[in-house]
Amino acid sequence: MLKPLCVVLPLLLSSQTLAKSSDYLGFDYPNKAKNAVSISFDDARHSQVDTGLALLNKYQVKATFYVSPFNVKERVEKWQMAVKTGHEIANHTASHLCTGNFEWLRELGVSLEQFTLKEMEQDILKGQDYIKATLNVTPTAFAYPCGNTFVGRGANTKSYVPLIAKHFKTGRTWLDETANNPNFTDFSQLTSLPIDGLTFEEIKKTIEQHRTNNSWIILAGHDIGKRDQYTTGSDVLEQLVVYLQDPKNGFWLDTVSNVADYVEANRKAFD
After folding, report:
1. Best label site of 76, 160, 210, 213, fewest CB within 10 Å?
2. Which residues form the NodB homology domain (predicted)?
3. How far apart are CA 180 and CA 89, in angstroms?
4. Is residue 216 in some structural domain?
């Protein structure tokens, strides 16, 4: 029995759209690299400039640091040195608010569930003003604290991703399960893969698993020192840098904003 045209046509259109959207478009990075990688760290934790900066500078690697004022204030000169040596300073809000499911936030009586979009914007811009005044840079990149992208709760929940799109070139999430397709990724919701607490071999395996379609892999950590739940091991970071810098491994290693600028200028249209 022939199916009515009104049934067949949507099926044909659906299959054609699926085939078109799933076609691999390809992407060319500098130096014929197969993938781009950005190394990033959150919170402006002291170990990042006390320990990590010298290691990164030793290999002339530029990282992206998503900072909040309360930690920068205790290491201002070192953060100014990070700027001078070419690292990217990015915004991580002034107050580092996350979901109130974190006990430490509930004890303070503040959380994203209790915040409005207006309050969120004010907090983001407060952090921006501090960075401009203290480090003399204007961040174009942002990372969502705890990876949370909302304010409010229930039916009143609102995304603050549009605020990030308004004020920044990129916004980076946290604890994701995929890398970024350079032709498709939303710059306001760039994904990242965690490196804290992992061995070099574990990180290498994660990277190799996410190299599909010339992906842009953003790695994210917190402290730098003795490997722990929220600490990337210094020895691990050094092994990682050496691995990523080896031309035979096919990576282009640069800051989030430098890669974003290149991707934006060279990405192909994705229907």
Report:
1. 76
2. 35-271
3. 21
4. yes
Q: CATH number of the domain at 51, please.
A: 3.20.20.370
CA 264 to chain centre: 16
Residue 37 near residue 244, CB atoms below 8 Å: yes
Are the C-beta atoms of residues 268 and 183 closer than 8 Å to each other?
Answer: yes
227-270 pLDDT tens trace: 999 999 999 999 999 999 999 999 999 999 999 999 999 998 76
Q: What is the mean pLDDT of residues 111-127?
A: 98
Task: Write out pLDDT tens, residues 21-40.
Answer: 556 789 999 999 999 999 99
Q: Name the residue type at position 251.
A: F
The 3-state DSSP class for residue 122 equals: helix
Note down the domain range covering 251.
Answer: 38-266
For 169-198, the pLDDT digits (tens) are: 999 999 999 999 999 999 999 999 999 999
- Tallying the residues shown for the chain, one arrives at 271
Percent of the chain with pLDDT over 90: 87
pTM of the model: 0.92
Compute the distance between CA of residue 242 and CA of residue 239 in angstroms, rounded to an integer.
5
142/116 Cα distance (integer angstroms): 19
Tell me the one-letter amino acid at 139: P
Look at strands 35-42 and 251-253 and give their pairing. parallel
Cα–Cα distance for residue pair 102/38, rounded to 1 Å:
28
Q: What angle do CA 97, 102, 103 make, to 5 degrees?
A: 115
Instruction: Report how far residue 204's alpha carbon sits from residue 61's, in angstroms, rounded to the nearest whole number.
Output: 18
